[in-house]
Design a protein that fits this description.
The protein is mostly helical and 315 residues long. Helix 1 runs antiparallel to helix 12, helix 10 packs antiparallel against helix 12 and helix 11 packs antiparallel against helix 12. It has a single domain, classed as MetI-like fold (Orthogonal Bundle). The longest helix has 38 residues. The protein has 12 helices and no strands. Helices cover 77% and strands 0% of the residues.
Length: 315
């Protein structure tokens, strides 16, 4: 298992290089000039050229990429053009906000999806089963930005239970932080709730028809123990695969949610940097997202072994 983990960690290196190169080329092909964004449209060509030389934008793109890559290997992701601070520092300052939102959205999706999916599988064609199926279809069909606007309109404008946006750090005021967290968390996690609920329902239905379930029932075990212990342990493996994939979708959704709810996280930093053509920040955020996605999938593979000792990756 340790050799498998080591191989996967080594595999991160070429993937990170490919992601970095693709991001570097794409962001530089987008129309716009960061020097013009900083200096304004009325800046003289001489002033723009001087800023290009200062930022290193006057060099050929392959040379710029090599310079950036060598610095990144030494832990230097460059200097933000807009913020005038190191990219790594700008990301680290905002990363706890995005981590809080992403982890809470993932936990929220699993806390709702697991019991509802199991109950729906155990009571097929019941009223709750129909409600679960309809809810899951709506959750996958409604875009998160539409759902976020609806939640803001209903809970912040009409009922006025939650604020429409903003962020208070957990260390400053836990209750205010929780109040600010609920709407973004529900918005970001609702799509995952729907997908996980349908997957758990299907997996539990399949598991309940296996021979080991009939054996457990024949031994006189209660139906709850059969469903929530024996069936769920095997049914949860496909869900773990989905959770690994959902890390990427949650990171992508955080870009929208943080702008919509005014959360000062990495997603909002990335959107601001894209509009201002802040190349180093965009590259740093994409590289962070790629590593997070790959590490999440590695943790999912390790979780397979913990749930089912028969699974081995050595061969």
């Amino acid at each position: 298992m340790l050799r498998y983990i080591a191989r996967r960690l080594i595999f991160l290196i070429p993937v990170a290089l490919l992601v970095s190169f693709a991001t570097f080329m794409i962001i530089h092909l987008v129309p716009g000039d960061p020097a013009r964004v900083l200096l304004g449209e009325e800046a003289t060509p001489e002033t723009v050229a001087a800023l290009h030389a200062q930022l290193g934008l006057d060099k050929p793109l392959p040379q710029q990429f090599v310079i950036w890559l060598v610095a990144a290997l030494h832990g230097d992701l460059g200097q933000s053009i807009l913020l005038q601070q190191p990219v790594l520092q700008a990301i680290v300052q905002r990363l706890p906000v995005t981590i809080e939102l992403g982890i809470c959205a993932l936990i929220y999706s699993l806390v709702l999806a697991i019991p509802l999916g199991i109950y729906s599988a155990m009571h097929r064609n019941s009223l709750l089963d129909w409600l679960v199926n309809i809810t899951s279809l709506l959750g996958t069909a409604i875009p998160i930005f539409v759902l976020g606007l609806v939640l803001i309109l209903f809970f912040a404008v009409f009922i006025r239970i939650f604020p429409p946006g903003g962020f208070v750090p957990l260390t400053d005021d836990p209750l205010a932080n929780l109040r600010d967290l609920i709407l973004p968390m529900v918005t970001l996690g609702s799509g995952a709730v729907a997908v996980n609920m349908r997957q758990i329902r299907a997996s539990v239905i399949e598991a309940l028809g296996q021979d080991y379930i009939r054996t457990a029932r024949a031994k006189g075990l209660s139906e709850n123990r059969v469903s929530y212990v024996h069936a769920l342990r095997n049914a949860i493996i496909p869900v773990m695969t989905l959770v690994g994939l959902q890390v990427g979708s949650i990171l992508a959704g955080a870009f929208v949610i943080e702008v919509l709810f005014l959360w000062p996280g990495v997603g909002q930093l990335a959107v601001t940097s894209i509009f201002s053509k802040d190349y180093p920040v965009v590259q740093g955020v994409v590289l962070l997202s790629a590593f997070s996605y790959m590490l999440a999938n590695l943790l999912v593979d390790v979780g397979y072994v913990l749930l089912d000792p028969r699974i081995r990756f050595e061969k």
